[in-house]
């Protein structure tokens, strides 16, 4: 049996200042659909300035939101193809 390999590329971009990090995530699916999500992190004024940590938190939140959108999209496609309401997809 032959298997088809598909690859997805996820892009993450960050915007930062001294106390806030914002992340924007985007994945382009093979059908041309783009799914986008955002994440945010805030540094408490008593915490050390560690930009990488802010990126990790904001990036994780953006990727989590992206994952939830992809689950919702898949769930809707299952319902459309089957003509019925399917069981929720849980993480």
TrEMBL record:
| SUPFAM superfamilies for the chain | Rv2632c-like
Domain of life according to the entry: Bacteria
InterPro entries hit by this protein:
Rv2632c-like, Rv2632c-like_sf
* Protein's name according to its UniProt entry: DUF1876 domain-containing protein
Q: Which organism is it from?
A: Streptomyces dubilierae
């Amino acid at each position: 049996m032959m298997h088809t390999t598909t690859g997805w590329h996820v892009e993450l971009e960050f915007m930062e200042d001294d106390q806030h990090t914002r992340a924007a995530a985007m994945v382009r699916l093979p059908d041309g659909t783009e799914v986008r999500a955002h994440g945010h992190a805030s540094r408490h004024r008593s915490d050390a300035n560690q930009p990488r940590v802010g990126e990790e938190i904001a990036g994780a939140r953006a990727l989590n939101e992206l994952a939830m959108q992809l689950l919702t999209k898949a769930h809707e496609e299952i319902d459309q193809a089957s003509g019925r309401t399917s069981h929720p997809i849980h993480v």
